[in-house]
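hey m, so remember when u said the tokens were messed up on ur end? i reran from scratch. heres the input so u can diff it against urs
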Amino acid sequence: MKHSFLILVTTVLFLSCSKQEDPIEREKREMKEFFDDSKLLVPYKGVKIALRVDYTDQSAGNVRISETAMKTLSAVSSLVTRDSVPQGLSGMMEVYQQLKNLYEIKKEINGINEDELPTIYKKISTIEQTMSASSNVMGTIEKDVFGTYNNSTEHFLLGCIWFVLPGAPPDIYAYEAAQVNEHEISKPDQHLFASLLKAVVCEQKEWYYTSEKSSTEYIDYITSHKEEVLKATAYLDSVPGTDPEKRFYELRSMGYALRGYARYNSSRGKEADEDFDHFVDDFDKSAVENKELCFLSAYLCIRNSKPEKAEKFLVKMEKMDNYNEHDEKTVKELRAFMKDKNGKAFNKYFDTFSLTRIAFNYLYQVSQKSDMAKTLKANRKTRDLMAIPGRMNKAFNQSQEMLNADSLMSGASGLVKKFFK
């Protein structure tokens, strides 16, 4: 009887474990469900399909995609080209009808894999070559700026553009980042920052295992391709001639911090502490002047019973130009903890600490400094691609402005607002 009971328990445990879904696969499923359900992404994905589809291809599958693309353009055209917010009941109802037409084809849009179509860049290149047969501008930029250009390159590029747009909807740059396969990006700095973008965005959306995976890719890539990365990221040095080793530790420290944060938020404290230790060691070897990261380093040192090292970071904070009264109070409390060990007062800092926000700011600065951004902005043709997110963002913001405006037409506003939940 005892043996039968043990066999039964073992069988139940085995079946229970076998049914546990791999966390990466679970998050992939959650991402798809999230992106398919996002009403904000319907017009965005629809417009991208319309820009990518080859209208000259008369195959049955492509004709169906072309028809969906034309429906999308018909529904959003006046929104994208509008220069002002619609006024009154008639304006609201006009937008409502356009959105209604658009969301009627939501299932069609979600059923199309945009990456099976030509990239937007390729379509622009084709138009450019048609207009000027002798022009090879696009090919030159592709080789010099991207090395090779593919779907992942375009998702990364558009993700970065949306990322730095003021007021851009997070769903859109999250969608673009999630589609990136870092291994398909050939330029070392772009490969690295594609991993960082994906890690940061997935952290924000609480897809912690995917964030961890991208952070690991980031750490492994910079470690195994150190020389190539340092050569490709020289533009990040604010002072020319700075020791590149310090930049290596600066870049890698961010990967350890993000991976540790992802593990911490998914209840894997021991693994998180190991990453946080690596972060502190790398950050200490860098030349970064960042108050928040100094605070994080000090906090982690105190938590791991390394008060002498913590004091080093607190002193560094005190010498910074943007050190203020609030910082002074925080530093004082941290030093008091090293004396009194008041855990409750100490833990409140990490509970409210936003590493994701710091990483966002860091990635924003990197995006603005990158050679890729400078080259693309300087060329008239590639600005066509970069202008797409800005135009669509304007339309999104105008729609939201209309929906948030005080008006007697609240009933009509409610009809439209439900599409933006």
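this time it looks ok to me. The first helix runs from residue 2 to 18. if urs says something different then somethings off w ur setup not the seq
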